[in-house]
Inverse folding.
């Protein structure tokens, strides 16, 4: 007996569904285990990442506590007690704690008037490419300050002049050292220009700006900045 159009359509649909099931079963037999393994590997990797993040956070908390212990010793003027936690932190994998520990060690050496040792510590920070650039720049300034009396003026200028630009966060500190180096060279004109640059940069701390105004004025340069809304005649 011939199939009606409706029966024929139903038959074809059943055949199509059966074919789809056979294809799905074949795909599962071929790739199902691979898919399961891939999912397990992905979950394991994600779990490992979460565990690593947790361990990093725990380590950072411990190092924060260790740094506080060092500061507590220093507050009690016990540099010997602070030396051990600082030495441990100086080898930290966390850039921030490592830099803070090194800065503190260098400051302790400065207090002991060990300028050479302090300069070496600051130089280590300045040369550490894993540390953020603003901290490296600060370390370079501190290193130069510790070495200033033993450095040729040209060396000071060449080292710090790239920082003596408007808008640089260390313009005031670096600029004073560069201006002092110019004075040692007998270049009062360049020293006055540098002090004037410091005085006119609103990003420089007020105390440094005021000192720069006084130094520039002593060299015959009016570096005073008028108050806002007031025009100098």
């Amino acid at each position: 007996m011939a199939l009606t159009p409706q029966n024929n359509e139903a038959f074809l649909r059943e055949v199509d569904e059966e074919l789809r099931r056979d294809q799905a079963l074949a795909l599962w037999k071929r790739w199902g285990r691979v898919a399961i393994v891939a999912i397990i590997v992905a979950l394991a990797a994600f779990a490992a990442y979460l565990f690593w993040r947790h361990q990093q956070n725990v380590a950072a908390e411990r190092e924060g506590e260790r740094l506080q212990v060092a500061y507590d010793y220093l507050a009690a003027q016990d540099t010997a007690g602070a030396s051990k936690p600082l030495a441990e932190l100086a080898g930290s994998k966390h850039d921030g704690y490592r830099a803070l520990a090194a800065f503190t060690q260098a400051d302790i050496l400065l207090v002991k008037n060990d300028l050479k040792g302090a300069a070496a510590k600051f130089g280590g920070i300045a040369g550490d490419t894993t540390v953020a650039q603003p901290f490296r720049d600060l370390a370079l300034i501190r290193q130069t300050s510790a070495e200033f009396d033993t450095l040729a003026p040209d060396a000071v200028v060449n080292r710090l002049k790239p920082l003596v630009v408007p808008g640089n966060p260390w313009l005031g500190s670096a600029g004073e050292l560069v201006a002092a180096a110019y004075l040692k060279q007998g270049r009062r004109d360049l020293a006055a220009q540098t002090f004037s640059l410091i005085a006119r940069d609103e990003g420089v701390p007020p105390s440094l700006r005021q000192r720069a105004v006084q130094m520039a004025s002593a060299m015959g340069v009016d570096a005073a900045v008028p108050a806002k809304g007031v025009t100098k005649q």
Confidence is low (pLDDT under 50) at residues 226-233. Residues 101 and 112 are 17 Å apart (CA to CA). Residues 5-75 form the longest helix (71 residues). The chain has nine helices and no strands.
